[in-house]
Structures are given as C-alpha cells and as structure tokens.
Design goal:
seven-stranded mixed β-sheet, Aspartate Aminotransferase, domain 1, Aspartate Aminotransferase, domain 2, 14 helices, 15 strands, 403 residues, alpha/beta, four-stranded mixed β-sheet
Amino acid sequence: MTLNARQQSRWDSAMMANYGTPPLALSHGKGCYVVDADGREYLDLVSGIAVSALGHGHPAIAEAVAQQATQLVHTSNLYIHEPGLQLAERLIALLDIPAKVFFSQDGATANEAAYKIARRHGWTSDPSGGRLRIVAAEGSFHGRTMGALSVTGNAAKRAPFEPLPEPVTFVPFGDTAAMAAELDDSVAAVFLEPILGEGGVVPPPDDYLSSVRQQCDEVGALLIVDEVQSGIGRTGHWFASTGQGVRPDVITLAKGLAGGLPLGACIAAGSTADLLGPGDHGTTFGGNPISCAAALAVLDTIENENLLSSVTAVGEMLAAEISDISDPWLLGQRGVGLWRAIELNQPEASTVERVAREHGFLVNALRPDLIRLAPPLVLSAAEARTFTRALPEILQQARRESS
C-alpha cells in the first residue's frame, strides 16, 4: 500500500465525511510545486483554493512567522499588538479611503461581521425594523456559517440547514435591471462578489458593479463586496472592486491575505465603520499576531516583487494559450488575472482533474463541466506554459478514458 493510500485509510477512520476522501496526501512544497507522501511532484494550480498567494515555503512568510513566534503568538482581543495595527493601517492605505478593520479567522467569519454591520445599518436607519432585507446574487457563495450561508445563492447548500436568517432576496448575477427592481428602502445591504468564485469564476458585465453602487446610494443601502477569493492580488488588483472603479461600504477578505495562515478581514468605510460598538462582535483567534505578521510579509512581497503586474501578464498568457487549444471537449476559458475557469461541454471535469494529476498538475473540478485554476501569484510564465502545453494531451487522455 502506498503512503498516500495509508493516509487516506487513516483519514476515513478519523475525519468526518464532509470533505469526502481527498485524492492525495501532501508532504511539502516549494514555490509553485508540492510533493505528495510518495514523493511525486505536482505543479500546484489550486494553491489551497486561492490561499497560498506566495506559493509554498516562501522565505518571507517563514521568516515573519518564525520571528513573531518568539515574541507573541496570541493576545486575544483584550490587548493591542503591533502586527495587527500595522496590517489594519496597510489595508486601509490600499483601499485609499477612511475605514476601519475587524480581523476574523476566515472568510465566512469576515462575512458574518459584514452581515452584522448590515443589520445594524438597517436598525439604525429604521428603528421600526422596516430596513432589514439583504439582496444577494444567484450562484454566489459567501461561506458556510449560518449568516454567510443565508446570503449564499446556492439552494442546495442552504436547504439542509434552513431556516436561515432572513429576509434575503436573490437576483441573477450581472443583471442590473433585476437588481434595480429589488432595491428600495426595505434593503439594508446588497451582498455581492465582484466576480463569482464558487459560482464558476464569472466576471460581471462592464459597469455592473458601478451601477449597483449607484443604485445602493439612491436607496440608502450598503454595498458589501465579498473579496474573500478575489482580493489581495488575485485579479491583478489589490481589490477586484476598486479595480473596477468601485468603492464599497464594506469589503471582506481572507484566503490569500496571510498566504496560508488563518486570517480574515472585514473593512468598513466611512461612517459604516462605526456601526459596531463595544460588545457587538468579537473573536478569539481572529487577527492573531502570527497571522498578521504573515499577512504583512505577503503585502510586502506582492509590492516589492511587482506581482500585480505579473498576475495580469501571466494570467493573460494563460488565457490566450488555453483559448488557442482546439479540442472537442473544450468550450473556452474565462476569468481575470490568475483566476481562471476552463469550460467543458461534457460533465467530465472530475476526469480531467484526475488525468491532470497523473500528468503532474493539480487543478480543481469546480463543477461537472468546469475546471478552476487559482495558482500562486508567483506563478511564472514558464511554469504556466508547462500546463498549457500538456493540456491537449490531458484532454485527449480524459476523452479516451471516459469513452
């Protein structure tokens, strides 16, 4: 029995079944590559679902974590620590408008904080309770906690746990008219991803987000933008929303923020930042010193190594080379920066994922007909080309094995 198989057996005995049984046990990694328990190397084009922004074993993160671990590992929210202050100040500077930050431990809890801000805005605007409705997008995903799940536009994910917090209204993503039809003075906030992530890496039409911004302003609703997957360079901008020329009232972050360590952030702008008062919200582990130190290293590295431009250039090259491939299964690709979806005309994404793994590439079968790519932001053009050059044979082998 291989070491991978042994760890899978141990997993099945010890772990709950909510993730199924993973196909690999990973041992270690360097840069954009990871190695499994049996010593086989893979180009990682998933990066922990858009989390490992600087890849694996990056010296800047390792040094920041090691140094911080000798000083303070945890303080709770009863005390101030310098890495958290510095990180909050850096994020506000990147947003470039007056704002305040709440640190959580992941994206779902960042979105829970945003949901609470929406509720407080609703009650403050209308003490009778007439402004509590949230408008969100069909196909969206905001997390699996009860509040975040309630604004997730995927009925299959919500149904097993209903009743969920309400009222929430879902409209088609990218449909400005449908959004306008729902916005009135009963709406506390609009909750959107700037690009659908789990919904299929779907960019909206041009000017969609700016139109929603204007509509929210007209009725006094907050615009909350979930940048858990899109933020911190994934699209070639620090924030996908500001890259589209939009300033939300609230931005939520996580995933790539700390390069692999658990950290989320809820950033509220202007007067929205003052809606939560003492005792309204909190967390034990959110914004711990080690995660904040790692996040500062991530921001420094993205800036110092000009990774935003690299993400744009490598992403465009990746998109062009995939688009040039002619294959009976391949419909095309879509996405922004280093966040791409390969569209298939057959429900065989899991087969393609498996065959890609056999060829030494980790990709993600996001849906039966869709492969997601979310590699580390440090992916080079040469590394990307090893995948695009192998993709025709991967697709051919997948077709042979599925027939």
